[in-house]
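From the shared-data thread, chain only:
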Amino acid sequence: MVYSFKVFKKSSPNGRLTLYLGKREFVDNITTVEPVDGVVVIGDEYLKNRKVFGQLLCSFRYGREEDESMGLKFQKDLVLLSHLVFPDTLNSDLKTSKLQQRLLTKLSASHLNAYPFTFNIPLNSPASVTLQPGSEDQGRPCGVDYYIRIFAGEDASDKPHKRSSVQLTIRKIQYAPSSKGRQPCTVVRKDFLMSPGQLELETTLDRQLYHHGERIMVNISIRNNSNKTVKKIRAMVQQCIDVCIFSSGQYKATVASIETQEGCPLQPGSSLKKTVYLIPSLSNNKDRRGIALDGQLKREDTDLASSTLLSDPDQRDAFGIIVSYVVKVKLFLGAIGGELCAETPFILMHPKPKPNKLIREDSEAGIEAFRQDTIDDYKPSEEDIQE
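Structure, as tokens:
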């Protein structure tokens, strides 16, 4: 039986550098991160007195592109890792994965100059997150993106020429842990002036961990020992976003909500137990600016950003975006009584997919090719032809 595996391919505009990757999503397991392994095919012309470098880049955009002026840019491009791919004198002891071994065998059989590379993404680097732009916004959206760049040059610090470089977007993601965690519960109480008792609100979720698209069951228990009247109940899922580069970059966005007056008005001395259901989804927030989404790849749909899991909450990358979720229940007591709110945190993530079949010697590669990076009005010069 012949197994097949998917390979992503992209070439430079002059066709002399071709990048092959087995996947574009790399999992952060908090303690380890999957390595980025691939293969570069180099044209014969670049084997003479040429060097080819590979870089892992993290791009953080924290402002709209249309607001940039007079050299001011709201974007930071960080080179996390840089390696010499060719000549491979430093990579002679590089351990290759099964994917790389299979690709090297296939490409070498076609008389192509193939060289492997491996990048280890830093542990504390931020996850791929995109902030949803508004309908009138232009240019790249704000967020964190990762790229693999292969280029020809004399030194790793050289500015790559577009005609002799290739760049492919990847994502750093996290999947839901196997443990479901404790059952979340929040209890809040409120005292009132000239009232002998308290108003107590208790909210409980059926579990701590939810997968995207699942229904969240919120159990609400109200004990009204005060002299106030509860007129209305509202429950909502709020996405909490922390743009770490700004000291005041925290804000919340409601991604699902429900409002009810069933059982209300709740008179003094009464109690009420109620269950409501909420489903946070991107389909109900398509046009909302500022909602955090999972890092987006072209040709692929995305979803609401998953909760960010940190090994140490105090060690936050300054160029990252931290996402968390809470269920907020609010009781309305009228103009004089005010409100009573309870927030219960939970985790929203994608489930870990089933492991792929192992790559065997008789495996066949299904290649998904991207169009070559293009340059507007680019015409080959004599220098390009001589290369």
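The two ends are 44 Å apart (CA to CA).
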